[in-house]
Specification:
Structural class: alpha+beta
Number of helices: 6
Number of strands: 4
Helix content: over 70%
């Protein structure tokens, strides 16, 4: 499946979205679709914010976004928005996988409880491009996860329809069995007086 996305990052995002969607679906049908849409919307916004914070798209004032802290050689990006997502560590792992697939030196660290992505300042354009790729991966993963959930809903609907079709047959069989038991019992009761009369006449 990773080959479908080109690398492992897209697969991880797909697996994350599908898990959230299926959990939502099992809790309440259409809730699964909404869960995917909500989760992917939050993820896409976080990725775009990160891409912009790196400096690929400077703010109108020309100032560097505060989310990216830099010195002469290295920059670091606040990953709190990703960590706040449900099972956010999986998304951070997808970011790590995307950067690795693009041969970008980077590291993940924590400072004062805040998770940070560290990379070389010179690689900022490449890092921003990687986040842009993750935005595309997220859209593709959302589409595929939604389709998988629709397929699951379709299978469940067909299964329920088949159960409804089978149920009347079971009911008819049960009614036929009960009717047969009653008829047999009545016949048995009807034979008993005749047998008694026959025995009386023979005496």
């Amino acid at each position: 499946m990773a080959d479908d996305f080109g690398d492992d990052a897209g697969q991880q995002i797909f697996d994350w979205a599908l898990r959230l969607g299926m959990e939502g679906y099992r809790r309440g049908g259409a809730a699964g679709q909404r869960a995917v849409e909500d989760a992917m919307g939050r993820l896409e916004a976080a990725l775009e914010n990160a891409r912009d914070a790196i400096g690929a798209k400077p703010e109108p004032s020309g100032g560097a976004p505060q989310a990216a802290r830099t010195d002469a050689r290295f920059a670091r990006l606040d990953m709190s928005e990703f960590a706040a997502l449900e099972d956010g560590q999986r998304i951070i792992s997808a970011v790590d996988a995307k950067l690795a697939a693009n041969d970008i030196w980077h590291g993940m660290t924590e400072d004062g409880g805040t998770p940070w992505l560290v990379f070389k300042t010179a690689d900022a354009p490449a890092v921003a491009c990687a986040f842009d790729q993750l935005v595309s991966d997220t859209k593709e993963a959302a589409s595929r996860a939604a389709e998988r959930i629709r397929q699951e809903q379709g299978r469940d609907d067909r299964s329920r329809a088949a159960d409804r079709d089978r149920e009347p047959l079971k009911d008819r069989a049960e009614r036929a069995r009960r009717a047969s038991d009653v008829q047999s019992h009545d016949a048995e009761r009807g034979r008993a007086p005749e047998q008694n009369r026959a025995e009386t006449r023979s005496k």
